[in-house]
Amino acid sequence: MRHAIALALILSLAACGGGRRETHQSTTSPTATPSRANFGDVHPQDFGSTAPQDHRIHGIDVSKFQPAVDWQTAQANGVSFAFIKATEGGDQADPLFRQHWQGAARAGVPRGAYHFYYHCRPAIEQARWFIDNVPRTQGALPPVLDMEWTPTSPTCRIRNSPDHIRAEAQIFIRALQSHYGQRPILYTAIDFFEDNQMWKVQGVDFWLRSVAAHPRDLYAGQHWTFWQYSGTGQVPGIAGKVDLNAFAGNARDWQAWLAASQR
Fold first, then answer.
1. pTM to 2 decimals?
2. Active site residue 61
């Protein structure tokens, strides 16, 4: 019964077209592929036969923990895309979301927003919160649902059943798909992925965390679009550490994916 109500709310979200709209274009083309990534790493890993550097297209994900970003410098040093934290749960918004969102756009860096999932709140409420805070922006990358275990959370350490977690994920994903008109991205780590059989989730591109091995070595043949390979990256233009990510394909694949996925 709960999921039936949630589906009805999804349809109402789509009908009312809630959330802010932005129709302006970036001042620089958001589809340009910059030079090869000039990144460092505080704690570099040996990935074996296929290293992150074997992938052509790299990017970052940022939040309030990266308060100072020179987006023009980052783009010039190989940042081809950025995922920016927007919301968490049903009532928390990242205080630097707007600053990062606008800065990336001015530098011509394709960017998308992500939501950190809170296991103690219904998915539909969290979807509404994300939609209230993230505008429908021409040229934006698809929205991202970040689902992980939260063992250090001060308020919510619950571990729901795999069936419940996947059902809630699908509710959130369908709400975003309906509102933004894009196929969402699902970010997760190996423990959460295996514990909840997240490969069964439908209608998403996968963004997988794997900081000591290639995803194929951990995720048993799971198709992925983005690979988070470091949480200790160093990028010119960004003070301190930042997460590093790679796109699965080559430069031509990247352009094709952008064309198919951007608004």
1. 0.89
2. yes
